[in-house]
Amino acid sequence: MTPRFRIDGPQLVPEERQSPPLLTGRSGSYALMPTAPDLLVFSRVPAVGGSIPAPRVVLAGDASGFPLSDLIAFLSQSRWSGHIRVRTPGGERSITLREGEVRGASSDDPADRLGEVLIRLGYVERARLEEVLREQPPSKVGRALVEKGYLQAHDLFKCVTHQVSEIFHAIVLCREGSFFLIDQPVDDKSTHNIQLSTQSLLMDSIRKIDELAHFRKRIPHGRLYVGKKRPSDGKLEVDEDRVLSLLDGRRTLLELGHAAKLSEFDITKVVFRLLEGGFAVLSEHPLTQGAAAAEQALAPTPSRPAAAARPPEGDHHEVVRVFNLIFREIRDEVAKQGMDNEFITSANAALSGQALTSSPVLEGLSLAPDGSLSESQLSEAFERHHKSLGSEPIASFKQALSDVMFFLLFQAGELLESRADEDLARRVKDLLATLETP
User: Do 180 and 262 belong to one domain?
Assistant: First the structure.
């Protein structure tokens, strides 16, 4: 068991009565290094050196000060084996690497449990899951569902893979808390015979990082309280309606995620959509009064009016025009390297396989040789699917096109020199800003 300590005023007090064994032979003077609020780091002065056998922590750090995606990319390239553990206000998660590839994951967040994943993906009904859980521990729920005939074995494998992917994404997306690199032999029996490409997972995570950065402009962290501003208009998506029904002003965004069985990324995305539609409000403190008081608790500042950052309903043509300018700008930069044909072919393959977005507005579309999408076909698709795009169809439309944009930028980044890549990103940002103008 890991030794535990308690900070009592200026004193660091072990919770066990006897001295923890890990402190044996460590007498001397130690300097306390400044770091994150969730982390204490002591360094012996002067250093003595030496090592201890595995398992051991070989690297620890502040998740808000170092991008975990960079660390994982390095570990993948180095073909490292061991565990990455991350502790955040949303819970503790870990992933297992073997020779640089992801072999498993674990989490204490209820939304990450296999049973909840099975329900979210539509493979099992909650009543059947609860029936099995009354007879078997959670660690054996998947196999028990297969044995009862409630689930196919290949569907179980698909859901376990999805579960590991979601935990991986949550780790990469975290922006506070602490992380630990643990040198420890990987037990094959605990990895479910899963091996996922770390590079592919990182690519998906990079897209989510860009999305989350957009959400964070309005929802800076998950400890804000969320209140209801007005009831559903009957046009919300299923997850939006479900989360809206949970808004009582007394739950933080992270607590809402636990209640709705959604990951931190997914609950942030849903709440962002509710805020954009005027259904919800945020507050630094629990909300105990009506919607008017809630709205006053965290009213937008004059520099960021609530109505800004979205074109009006009829401006989907402008959205198409601006994103096509962006797509052509990216293609033109790649063309300078003589790789535009391969670039467009790769992007169209991803589009046709719906690897970039599941939005119906892009079904059957492909990029032209100049990098653009057909304006007439896009506009027609938006008008045809308008009612199925949720409470904010323009926002959904922009998100689908953003998914394509992020993929193109990621692919271009692999082909361009750093200076050209940075200049391209700046130009793209300037073009996007034209859609933010009221």
Answer: no
DSSP annotation string for 119-179: HHTTSS-HHHHHHHHTTS-GGGHHHHHHHTTSS-HHHHHHHHHHHHHHHHHHHHH--SSEE
Specify the residue for token string 């449990």: 113
pLDDT at position 131 is 93
- Tell me, what's the pLDDT at 383? 85
- List the end-to-end C-alpha distance of the chain, in Å, as a whole number: 57
Do 71 and 197 lie in a common domain? yes
Do 370 and 245 sit in the same domain of this protein?
no
Nearest Cα residue to 147 out of 158, 135, 159: 135
In the predicted model, residues of the chain with pLDDT beneath 70 are 1, 17-25, 187-193, 288-314, 353-358, 414, 436-438
Q: How many domains does the chain have?
A: 3
pLDDT of residue 414: 64
pLDDT at 193: 57
Q: Residue 349 CB: number of other CB atoms within 10 A?
A: 11
* DSSP tally for the chain: helices H, then strands E: 15, 11
Q: What are phi and psi of 14, to 5 degrees?
A: -70, 140
- Does residue 6 fall inside a structural domain? no
Residue 29 lies in a domain: no
Cα–Cα distance, 225 to 253 (Å, whole number): 6
Among residues 169, 202, 235, which one ends one of the domains? Answer: 202
Is residue 261 situated within a structural domain? yes
315: which residues sit within 8 A by CB, 6+ positions away? 394
Cβ-based neighbours of 370, under 8 Å, separated by 6 or more: 328, 331
- Residue 385: other Cβ atoms inside 10 A: 17
CA–CA separation, 346 and 371 (whole Å)? 12
pLDDT at 295: 46
The domain containing residue 136 runs over which residues?
57-202
- Alpha-helix residue ranges (DSSP H) falling in 336-417: 340-352, 375-385, 393-415
The pLDDT of residue 408: 82
> Are 253 and 358 in the same domain?
no
